[in-house]
Each structure stands twice: as structure tokens, then as C-alpha cells.
Design goal:
InterPro entries: MptE-like. The protein is an alpha/beta fold. The chain is built from 23 helices and 19 strands. Helix 8 packs parallel to helix 23 and helix 19 packs antiparallel against helix 20. The N and C termini lie far apart (75 Å). The chain is flat, with a radius of gyration of 30 Å.
């Protein structure tokens, strides 16, 4: 009956594996035999040799000794690599009833044997099951697990698997290391940016409310050729071509990132520049423009860009919105229409520009200087100050990808991430002509490679550029909507101040009940907290401004709820709520205090716009 019960559980909670594994008996290569102690053990035939996955003498005692060293290791989530007959997992589940765990088994025949020897219904904290039916599944399984846990997990490997399944274990370990590194880098990026995005959006709003949105220019750009110029080392080879295109006005030339400096160094004034980097030092990209007070280059900026960029930029400003700015989504919409389009945030401004000009229906879209790899030991084009030079550690961490000519070039994680992201977006714009002219650059799926000189002959034969494309012809914002939404947001802010004070007051009472060992009072306060915290989380001011600033911590907190939910001791449970949720709430209050001056300045800018006063440039 145990096998039938386990199989029914699989069908209910893990139907994919239930359908794949099938309900058949043990394989001839995997045998369940009795040990000296009388408990079952597993024997696997490998190349004519009988290998034991558990002790042939006393597998239960062996599992107990093995788990002694791991019972205190786990804190978030445990992944067991190697199930065997599940003795060690059962010990863990009994000693850690509130810690979630998952299992990964590289041998489907072992898993079938396991189904007849453990009662999985007792394992209430079992979350994910991965059983390799083919070696190709390893990558997708590991990626799924890392995504589910954000890489916050303890991995416990049954020792015999390192020997018996050496190749599978090596593949698993290398794959896990790869995805953990990727997740760690993504985590670091999100950690660095999630507060900056909101802070910048608030700080930039006095400019954004007076800057025309780029989508208002869609009709002007539709069907026109656009060149996106990046600062890769191949840019220098196209300077003369770009000068000719500029003189003939046969395509719009937009600089992305630090390419603006290189173009100016070579005497080319682009038709515009694009920027979005949320770092405060992003303004340094435009040092030459600012120092020389060049006022004729319009700046298309993401509304979450480092705020100093807009305060110092001498030229016209044109806005675009990304999905990292929930504030413009809350306050601004077109007259008689829906809210403005928001582009997906991306690892580079070139990808933002690609999305933008694709949405504007430009044709063709031409990439210049988009190397996405190293060339002649250089990252960037000439004309840039403090150009980074490759060092040995860069080369050690690099790897090869195919270039536009079918050769191999060195690249790194950052460049490769940009390339893959660009390829992803290109799948959405298959009706656009996107041409990569970057000599020696990485091959980008979804583009066609052509020499820029050939692009000029085939596509750039007419004068198309309107040099005054950026002139503000009216913001097109729905002022009634802005008035209503800003008032609504302020009402919710005032309410939220009261709500967060109420939650913190309940926390203090909960903490006292724990110190007094009053479980009955702790229970009532926990119920009161649940209601207050739920209201707190539904508040639109919190959801628009404070929640996006703390998404990583909120995701971590959500993963802790299992350990809180299944805690039977009321005082321990209350203490966990105060410790884990309390930190989150106090951090929210600190963020509220920090952003309040910026928020008030934003509301002031709204009133100026509603009163149709002149924009403030301070």
C-alpha cells in the first residue's frame, strides 16, 4: 500500500513526475536487499560491480551518524542530492519539522525503489521532487530549484552518490555552481538598484512632469532608419561613415551610454543620446557635454536615471518610462488614453534603445559599436577618458562566443548577459529589420550582419532627419487624472503612517507577551497583527513606493513563512514573527522617513504642473 499511497501523492502534487516515472517494478540494475541488521539496503550494478548506496551492515545507524553533522546546518531550504531509500531524509524531516526541503535523484530506478520504502505523506515540508530521466534534464531542474529558492539553500549529498554516480554528481555540481553564480550576480544587481530606482524616480519627477514623453514622437520616427551607436572598440572603424550619414541626414544617430563622448571626440554631434543608469555617477558619462555646455543634443532619459544627470544636463530632455518606475504609472497617463508604455528594464541602455525604436516602428534599426566582447584587449572605443584595459583576471574569467564572421571571440558574463537579453527582445520584433554592423562583434541572433557601408547603399539614400524632432509640442498628460491620482496617493500616505505605527505598536505588545511567557495573549496579538499587516500591505502608497524598494527582503520573508506557519509552540512562533517580520517593517519605516522629502517635492512639482507654472530646474 505504501507504493500506491506514494504514487497517489505524486499524481496529486507532482503529476509531471508521476506520468514520466510510470508505475513499474525494480530494475535489474537496482536491487533492494537485506543488510546484516535486517533493514533494507540498496545495491546498484555499475560496470559489473555491485555498489552499495547504504551500509551493508546497518543502514539506519549509518544514516543517523551521517545526519548528526547536518541537522543544525539547515536554515532556509535543504536539497537532498541522492535519495537512496530515504533513511537520512526521514531523520531530517523528523528533527526539523518546520524546514522545507526538496529531493534530487539522478537514477529513476532508485527512485522507484524508494517509493516502496518511505511514507512521503509524513513529509509535510517536502516541496520539490527532481528525478533525472535523461541527462539533459539536469540544467532545467537545477535552474528551477535555484529560481524557486533564490539560491538560498543547503545542499546535502548522500556520500555514496559521489562515488557511484560520479559523472552525474559532477554534472549536477557544476550546473548548480553556474546557476548559483548567475543568481548571486542578479541578486547583487537588484540589491544595488531596487532602492535607487524609486529614489531616482521621485527625485526626477519635477523634470519628468515637464519633459515630453518620447512616444509622442512616434509618428515622426515611424519607418525612419535609426542608428544605435554603442561605445565598443569597433566604433572607431565607422567614424567616417557616421560623419557622412550625419551630413546627409540619411538616418537618425543616437548615442547610448558613453558613446556620446567618443562621437564628440571625433567631431560627430548625434541626433540624440539615451541614458538610464540609476547610479549617481551616471552624470559622468556626459561630462564633456556638461563641461562644454553643448545644448543641441537632446537626452532621452529613463525616469529612474541617476538624478544628478538631469540636474546638470544642458540640453533638451525627453522622457521614457521603464517598468522600474511605478510612480509614473500611478500618476501619468495620456489625455483620453491609458497609461504610458513602459519598457522592460534591461542590462544595458542599448537594449532599452532597441526596445524603444522597435516600439516606435523605426526601420531599419542599425547597431554600431555593439561588440559585446573584447577586441584587441579593449572594452571601449577611443576618445573615452579612463578607458578600461583588460587585465589577466578579466581574461581568466572570460569565455568564447561566436562572432559575426563565424570566428570565436572572448567575452564575459556581463557582455554575454546583454547579448542574450538583446536576443530575447528581438524575438518580439521579428517584423523589424535589425542590422548589426559591428566588425568583430559577437553574433546576435535575430539580427543580420552587414558592413555599414553596404547599409548606406541599400537603406540610407534619402534625407529623413528632422533636426528639431525633440521640440516640445505639448506634454499630452491628462491633468485631471494627475490631480485625482496625486490626491489619492497623498491620502494613502497619510493612512499608511498610521498603519505602520499600529503594526509597530502590536509588535511591541507581542514582544512583551513573549517575555512574560503569556501564550494566550501572544495568540490574540498574533491574530491582531495578521489583520493589521494585511491592511498595511494593501495600501496603495506602500505598493507603489515602498514595496518596490524592498522586494528582495519581501521575497526572503515569504520563504520564511513556512518555518513560522508550522511552528506549534505559540511563544516561539510569536518570537519568530517579531524577529523576521519586524525587521522588514522597521526597514519600511526607515525608507518612509528617507523618501518623504523627495515625495513632498514630487507633490510640489505636481501642483506646479497643475497650476501651469514654469518648470523648476533645481
Amino acid at each position: 500500500m505504501r507504493v500506491a499511497d506514494n504514487y497517489a501523492l505524486l499524481k496529486a502534487k507532482h503529476p509531471y513526475f508521476a506520468s514520466k516515472i510510470g508505475f513499474i517494478g525494480e530494475s535489474g540494475q537496482v536491487q533492494v536487499v537485506d543488510s546484516k541488521s535486517g533493514d533494507s539496503t540498496l545495491v546498484v550494478e555499475r560496470s559489473g560491480t555491485a555498489e552499495y548506496l547504504h551500509s551493508k551492515y546497518n543502514p539506519l545507524h549509518e544514516a543517523g551518524k551521517f545526519m548528526e553533522q547536518h541537522l543544525q546546518d539547515a536554515h532556509n531550504h535543504v536539497l537532498f542530492y541522492g535519495v537512496g531509500l530515504g533513511y537520512h531524509i526521514d531523520i531530517f524531516a523528523r528533527h526539523n519539522p518546520t524546514i522545507p526541503f526538496s529531493i534530487y535523484e539522478p537514477d529513476v530506478d532508485v527512485f522507484r525503489a524508494f517509493l516502496s520504502h518511505q511514507d512521503m505523506k509524513r513529509w509535510s515540508m517536502l516541496r520539490h521532487i527532481y528525478v533525472e530521466l535523461d541527462v539533459s534534464e539536469c540544467s532545467s531542474y537545477v535552474q528551477d530549484f535555484v529560481n524557486q529558492t533564490s539560491g538560498q539553500a543547503t545542499i546535502i549529498t548522500l556520500p555514496s552518490y559521489e562515488r557511484v554516480y560520479a559523472e552525474a554528481f559532477r554534472r549536477f555540481s557544476e550546473t548548480m555552481q553556474h546557476f548559483l553564480q548567475e543568481t548571486r550576480k542578479i541578486f547583487q544587481l537588484r540589491h544595488a538598484f531596487e532602492k535607487k530606482w524609486i529614489i531616482n524616480a521621485l527625485d526626477n519627477f519635477p523634470f519628468t512632469i515637464h519633459a515630453e514623453h518620447i512616444c509622442n514622437k512616434k509618428q515622426l520616427f515611424e519607418g525612419k532608419p535609426v542608428i544605435i551607436v554603442a561605445a565598443g572598440p569597433s566604433l572607431v572603424e565607422e567614424i567616417e561613415n557616421l560623419k557622412y550619414i550625419k551630413a546627409q541626414k540619411s538616418a537618425y544617430i543616437f548615442a547610448v551610454g558613453s558613446a556620446i563622448t567618443s562621437l564628440l571626440h571625433h567631431g560627430i554631434i548625434p541626433d540624440g543620446a539615451c541614458t538610464y543608469d540609476p547610479h549617481f555617477h551616471n552624470v559622468n558619462v556626459f561630462k564633456k557635454v556638461i563641461d562644454e555646455e553643448i545644448t543641441c543634443i537632446p537626452l532621452i532619459y529613463g525616469s529612474t536615471v541617476g538624478a544628478g544627470t538631469l540636474k546638470d544636463y544642458p540640453g533638451p530632455l525627453v522622457s521614457l518610462f521603464t517598468d522600474k518606475d511605478p510612480i509614473v504609472g500611478m500618476l501619468l497617463k495620456k489625455e483620453n488614453e491609458k497609461t504610458f508604455e513602459q519598457l522592460e528594464d534591461a542590462p544595458s541602455i542599448a537594449i532599452i534603445a532597441l526596445q524603444l525604436f522597435s516600439e516606435m516602428h523605426c526601420n531599419p534599426i542599425v547597431l554600431v559599436g555593439q561588440n559585446l566582447g573584447y577586441r584587441n584587449n579593449s572594452y571601449y572605443a577611443s576618445g573615452l577618458e579612463n578607458t578600461r584595459v583588460l587585465v589577466q583576471s578579466d581574461l581568466d574569467a572570460s569565455f568564447q562566443v561566436e562572432d559575426v564572421s563565424g570566428n570565436m571571440i572572448q567575452t564575459d558574463w556581463s557582455f554575454n548577459t546583454m547579448r542574450l537579453e538583446m536576443e530575447f527582445h528581438l524575438t518580439k520584433y521579428t517584423d523589424r529589420t535589425v542590422i548589426n554592423t559591428t566588425q568583430g562583434g559577437a553574433k546576435i541572433q535575430g539580427t543580420q550582419f552587414m558592413d555599414l557601408s553596404d547599409v548606406m547603399k541599400v537603406y540610407l539614400n534619402d534625407e529623413v532627419v528632422d533636426s528639431n524632432w525633440y521640440v516640445n509640442e505639448g506634454l499630452g498628460y491628462d491633468l485631471n487624472y494627475l490631480r485625482e491620482q496625486s490626491k489619492f496617493l497623498e491620502e494613502k500616505r497619510e493612512l499608511f503612517v498610521k498603519q505602520i505605527d499600529e503594526v509597530i505598536g502590536i509588535f511591541n505588545d507581542m514582544n512583551r507577551s513573549v517575555n512574560q511567557k503569556n501564550a494566550k495573549k501572544a495568540f490574540k496579538l498574533t491574530q491582531k497583527f495578521d489583520t493589521a499587516f494585511e491592511s498595511f500591505q494593501k495600501n496603495e502608497f506602500y505598493k507603489t513606493i515602498l514595496k518596490p524598494m524592498n522586494m528582495l527582503q519581501l521575497e526572503w520573508l515569504t520563504k520564511q513563512f513556512d518555518t513560522i506557519k508550522y511552528e506549534s509552540d505559540m511563544l516561539v512562533k510569536t518570537k519568530k514573527v517579531v524577529e523576521k517580520v519586524g525587521k522588514f517593517v522597521y526597514d519600511i519605516r526607515n525608507d518612509l522617513q528617507m523618501i518623504t522629502p523627495l515625495y513632498m517635492n514630487m507633490q510640489k512639482a505636481v501642483q506646479i504642473a497643475l497650476n501651469q507654472e514654469k518648470p523648476m530646474n533645481n
